[in-house]
């Protein structure tokens, strides 16, 4: 069925502290999602996050690198770049030091 706008496109893609490197689990999730997008699925919005460790500017840059790594994995998996919408880095809420803060969220936007 069609996904509604704003629906999570995939489980969160998580990263080690200070890293924008995708692990094997993230690559599998993104390869599956790329196939769905390539087969005519909805556009996907990508937004990177970091924890609160370190300088703000460095965290914004890291969040962007994480989002770019996800976009590149989707494109290499066959998703057309035009179907991927990059969003500005998100704001960390709550504790901000939890591993869940070090992620990229993917949402359907069509």
Strand order of the largest sheet: 1-4-2-3
Please state the oligomeric state of the protein chains shown: single chain
The portion of residues assigned to helices is 25-40%
Instruction: State the end-to-end CA separation.
Output: 13 Å
Radius of gyration: 13 Å
| Uncertain regions spanning at least 5 consecutive residues | none
Would you tell me the structural class of the helices and strands? Answer: alpha+beta
Give the overall silhouette: elongated
From N to C, what is the helix and strand string? EHEHEE
**Number of β-strand runs:** 4
Number of helices: 2
The whole-number mean of residue pLDDT values reads 87
Largest sheet: 4 strands, mixed
């Amino acid at each position: 069925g069609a996904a509604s706008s704003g629906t999570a496109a995939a489980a969160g893609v998580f990263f080690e502290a200070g890293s924008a490197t995708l692990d094997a689990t993230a690559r599998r999730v993104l390869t599956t999602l790329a196939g769905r997008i390539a087969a005519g699925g909805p556009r996907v919005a990508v937004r990177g996050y970091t924890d609160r460790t370190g300088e703000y500017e460095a965290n914004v840059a890291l969040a962007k690198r994480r989002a770019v790594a996800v976009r590149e994995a989707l494109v290499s998996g066959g998703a057309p770049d035009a179907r991927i919408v990059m969003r500005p880095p998100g704001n960390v809420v709550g504790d901000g030091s939890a591993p869940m803060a070090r992620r990229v969220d993917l949402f359907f936007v069509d």
